[in-house]
């Protein structure tokens, strides 16, 4: 075409060298490319953009926000320039070879970017669909991007060296070990993401606890190589995706779905405050509405047992008797069974643990009727506030290690005693 163009100019009476004709052909190609660019980006894309803004469909807006159509337009422009180079320039011209090579690289680049835009748009659309929120789409799309990038790089190298992509792929066999080393994390992340999804182990929004990585909070992103967790102190912890398969972690989703959060806390009772209840103590405790039925039933049972066995009750070692700590456990169980903030259809226990030098542990094991953190803490605090306040009614004391205040008070008492004795001797 370049030769015909030169001959046509000569027929018109113009004499130009091959270089001048080449420059004019290149100028013509550039002019046509600029005109096509103007039509695509100033007319067609603007019209489609206005249509998308008026549309209520999310996918149309997502495609324009991610610039997928503009990148497709650039791909078409590269194809048009490639065709023009073949039409206007000499087949044996080095300029045509260079222009077409650049066009191939241009087309490959913007095809890759268009694929990226398509995947990002699909991810934006899926984020609004509740049915797809549990799927690790970000990690899968990143895997597709990685594969597409590798394919485009191979095609680009083959275009530059002028060899078939199959030849380049055959040469990569020796580099497999290097490639596996370079892409170790993405490959492990891809496998881990598939396992997490297939086994429904983790979703965005789950409460994840993984002490080995200092993670304790909500999962905000599951990507190809990393999982991001927003901790309760608002810091962000990044965990390798494959670590969730190789290491253990705790997912609190089951607790949230059950609708109840566990209370497992104990109070330590001073062992020296444990004793049998006297008749006066029983009469006084019967005034408590939650204890009256229990005490009457237990009194009848104990009296019947002692009478049948004819125990000499003058000895405290004989027969069965009510204790203040046992009565306290029964009271606490009745209190929890009548508490509106406690789930009655889940495990509910008040148990006594192994005694030690720290006292006798009385443990509350129950589930609140809410999983919200603030409400859970309020219910738990209210229960133990009541426990601490009601203990003296049963003649019980909390075990507490002596503090500096206790030692100073003891030293002050001893000093006063010593001063009193000295005064008496004088």
Automatic annotation (TrEMBL):
GO terms for molecular function: mechanosensitive monoatomic ion channel activity. The chain crosses the membrane at residues 20-48, 68-89, 95-119, 140-160, 166-183. Its main location: membrane. SUPFAM superfamilies: Sm-like ribonucleoproteins. InterPro entries: LSM_dom_sf, MS_channel_C, MscS_beta-dom_sf, MscS_channel_2nd, YbdG. It is found in: Cell inner membrane. It is a multi-pass membrane protein. Belongs to the MscS (TC 1.A.23) family. This is Mechanosensing system component YbdG. It comes from Kangiella spongicola.
């Amino acid at each position: 075409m370049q030769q015909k163009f030169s001959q046509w100019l000569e027929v018109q009476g113009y004499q130009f060298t091959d270089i001048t004709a080449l420059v004019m052909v290149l100028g013509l190609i550039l002019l046509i490319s600029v005109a096509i660019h103007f039509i695509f980006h100033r007319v067609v894309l603007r019209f489609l953009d206005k249509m998308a803004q008026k549309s209520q469909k999310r996918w149309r807006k997502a495609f324009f926000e991610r610039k997928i159509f503009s990148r497709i337009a650039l791909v078409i422009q590269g194809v048009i320039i490639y065709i023009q180079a073949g039409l206007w320039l000499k087949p044996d011209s080095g300029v045509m070879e260079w222009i077409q090579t650049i066009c191939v690289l241009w087309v490959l680049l913007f095809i890759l970017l268009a694929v990226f835009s398509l995947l990002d748009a699909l991810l934006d659309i899926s984020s609004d669909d509740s049915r797809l929120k549990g799927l690790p789409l970000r990690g899968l799309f990143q895997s597709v991007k990685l594969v597409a990038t590798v394919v485009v790089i191979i095609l680009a190298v083959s275009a530059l060296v002028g060899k078939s992509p199959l030849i380049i792929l055959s040469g990569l066999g020796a580099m497999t070990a290097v490639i596996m080393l370079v892409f170790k994390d993405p490959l492990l992340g891809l496998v881990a993401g598939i396992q997490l999804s297939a086994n429904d182990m983790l979703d965005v929004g789950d409460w994840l606890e993984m002490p080995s990585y200092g993670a304790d909070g909500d999962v905000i992103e599951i990507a190809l190589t990393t999982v991001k967790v927003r901790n309760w102190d608002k810091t962000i912890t990044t965990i390798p995706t494959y670590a969730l398969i190789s290491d253990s972690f705790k997912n609190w989703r089951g607790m949230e779905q059950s609708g109840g959060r566990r209370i497992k806390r104990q109070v330590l009772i001073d062992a020296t405050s444990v004793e049998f209840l006297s008749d006066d103590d029983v009469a006084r405790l019967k005034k408590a509405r939650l204890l009256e039925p229990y005490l009457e039933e237990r009194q009848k049972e104990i009296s019947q047992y002692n009478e049948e066995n004819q125990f000499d009750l003058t000895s405290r070692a004989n027969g069965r008797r009510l204790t203040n700590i046992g009565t306290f456990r029964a009271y606490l169980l009745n209190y929890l069974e009548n508490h509106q903030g406690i789930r009655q259809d889940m495990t509910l226990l008040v148990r006594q643990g192994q005694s030690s030098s720290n006292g006798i542990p009385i443990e509350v094991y129950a589930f609140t009727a809410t999983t919200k953190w603030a409400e859970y803490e309020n219910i738990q605090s209210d229960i133990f506030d009541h426990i601490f306040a009601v203990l003296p009614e049963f003649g019980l004391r909390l075990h507490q290690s002596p503090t500096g205040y206790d030692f100073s008070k003891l030293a002050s008492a001893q000093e006063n005693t010593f001063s009193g004795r000295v005064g008496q001797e004088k």
